[in-house]
Amino acid sequence: MSHTRKPPLVTGISPNEGIAWTKVTIRGENLGTGTADLIGLTICGHNCILTAEWMSASKIVCRVGQAKNEKGDIIVTTRSGGKGTSTVSFKLLKPEKIGILDQSAVWVEEMNYYDMRTDRNKGMPPLSLRPANPLGIEIDKGRFPPKELEALFPGMSADFTSENFSAAWYLIENHSTTSFDQLKMAVMNLKKQANKKNEGSLAYVKGGLSTFFEAQDALAAIHQKLEADGTEKVEGSMTQKLENVLNRASHTADTLFQEVLGRKDKADSTRNALNVLQRFKFLFNLPLNIERNIQKGDYDVVINDYEKAKSLFGKTEVQVFKK
């Protein structure tokens, strides 16, 4: 006899606002029995199932996409409970426009991760990151000197990302005081994570079929339009318009960068002039100093400054120095 679960209920989301592709944590009740049970997730009307990672029946992590609405509900759909409801909402913020010379910063999560493009065949969720502690239990380092371990395991490594990874070396270095029961729990945890990731790949593909089909239809429509323009060869065709747009964009970019480079050249010229003024400060200030010293009656200083300038720049070929 099959037992129907209650529909999902979202009771919290953190953060509750942000720009597109913000990583959020969704909390609630009856959010599925596993990765394969999660078949739908929308935030503000946008399908986020491709970036969703099922953590537990009360927690899901995902990234907010380019939502259609500025503020909306978080709807979770599971195979066991159906379409759910939400008591909270998420507000999509518009990103600030950054100018070409404005400084900007991108938040990088402080966690060791690796490039997903190298592990496409492993069926891992898009948000999966390789943790610094794969066993999930407390690490106790420093019991054994690294040189002794290197001599004990020649040619091997304790780095679990290395091809020459040695599990014995890793356990001795990081878990020499860990009990056997804790290690058995860690093994069970690793098996659960592996099963979840293997089962999840198919669910992500199924959940994103609608997005794939929309992209396929759009590409097919563009292809048909381009073929029609190529046979008609009439003025104002799609290819001609595209060429005009690209030409205008190229002209705008050239104009913009010419202005930026011109400002840079001007700044460099000003900086060089200031350096020259600073380097030959004595010579450029000589007329004013002579006039002031004459008014003070310091004629000895006037003669000394004149003799000094004449000895330094008397045979110069620079026109401004001659003057």
Give the DSSP E fraction (strand runs of 2 or more residues): 5-15%
Number of helices: 9
Order of helices and strands: EEEEEEEEEEEHHHHHHHHH
Low-confidence stretches: 108-129
Helix/strand/pairing class, anyone? alpha+beta
Q: So what's the oligomer here?
A: single chain
Radius of gyration: 35 Å
Distance between the termini: 106 Å
Sheet with most strands: 6 strands, mixed
Molecular shape: extended
What proportion of the residues is helical, as a percent range?
40-55%
Q: Total strand count, please?
A: 11
Structure commentary:
With 323 residues, this protein is α+β, with helices and mostly antiparallel strands. The protein has helices spanning 146-152, 167-174, 180-207, 209-232, 238-279, 281-284, 286-296, 299-313, 319-322, and strands spanning 9-14, 17-18, 23-29, 38-43, 46-47, 53-56, 59-63, 71-78, 82-83, 85-86, 89-92. Strands 2, 4, 5, 8, 9 and 11 form a six-stranded mixed β-sheet that branches. The chain has a five-stranded mixed β-sheet with strand order 6-7-3-1-10, with no helix packed on it. β6 and β7 (59-63) form a beta hairpin. The longest helix has 42 residues, at 238-279. The chain starts with 8 loop residues before the first strand and ends with a helix. Mean pLDDT is 76; it is low at 108-129. This is Exocyst complex component 2.
